[in-house]
Specification:
alpha/beta; Aspartate Aminotransferase, domain 2; seven-stranded mixed β-sheet; binds pyridoxal-5'-phosphate
Length: 419
Amino acid sequence: MSVTLVPSLPTRPAATPAPLDVLGVPGEINLDYAASAPCARAAADAVAELLPWYASVHRGAGALSRRCTLAYERARQSVGAFFGARADDHVVFTRNTTDALNLLARALPPGTTVVTNAGEHHANLLPWPRGSVRLPVPADPAGAVRDLDAALTELRRDSNPALPVLVAVTGASNVTGELWPVAELARVARRHRARIVVDAAQLAPHVPVDLLALDVDYVAASGHKLYAPFGAGVLIGRADWLDAAPPYLSGGGATSHVGTATHEVTWTTGPARHEGGTPNLVGAVALAAVCTALADADRAALAAREQDLLARLRAGIAALPHVVELRTFGPDAPRVGIVSFVVAGRDSAEVAGRLAREHRIGVRDGLFCAHPLARRLLTEAATRSGRRDLPATALRASIGLGSTAAQVDRLLSALAALD
Ligand code: PLP
């Protein structure tokens, strides 16, 4: 096998914004961004530029290795800056949001109570320790704030006030796209001396998420939902719990000293403590490239374009008498480009299969790894619509950077044809 040598790493002139288009296959209509978004050209380009240089990170003295170590640490900085990390926050690369939240769950100080909500994705329900408080799904965003306030008041009254409390909340629902009032929830948490982590898996691809501006303690996100599908995610936030916790992955890179006696080990502090083993350089660089491209972009214009498409999709669905939308809050609650719905009298898996086979449209069907919420919304949809023939699972269409009005219209006409 021969090795193609590349003399120098090309870098884009600083003044040229990175491209924000996404890759795809002509004719295939991807309306499943909420599961995994397509790859941004910025991510693919960054990876292509990096690959000839690929070598070990943090482990070699060679030029390639040093270059890769620099690229990895620069990626950490870019991702941290994109999420508004404070100077003393840690930016830990993980595999995805699930991994990031599991890492945080393992770093909780003893006796921490976690307060979450039945409307969460499983990734933000299942990692938390026994004794966590699961609030009911509220009727509206103001209800979410009230419920949290009441729960924290009770918790502080009934338990040792010195014990830590962590509020774990989603930024945007993966079932309905509805936005949760993160800044208000953070204010309530702060008032009760609780910390707050935001599951930004669905929020970050659509709107800026800034730790400092939101005054939240931690943010978790996935690269593959943020147009960087190279296996990296991130947990960003307060250093103290992370530095005090046992390493998430014990092994090379997480230690500062290992002695000859069994268990004689000193773990390092900083992000490396939880990134044992060889890190995912390609994933980190891809994620950083998208973060940089998005930071350079006119995000208000991108969001406005997405909201236009979303309004078109929701209006089209509302006009189909046999299709019923799922929602937690009122019909006008702000949301990102995600819509779940059911086709009355049709099995959702069968509809998804027909959309794929007959129209080359990819959507998601099922309960979206948010079983408690999805089941509840299906029941509510039946009550609201008065239809007794709704299926037991739902369909979800989700849009983003590469979506077009023509794609939305194709879905709507395919759904209309099912009647
Ligand atoms: N949180 C939310 C709101 C999600 O939508 C998802 C995935 O769909 C996750 C967490 C888990 O993300 P990942 O599968 O990338 O770990």
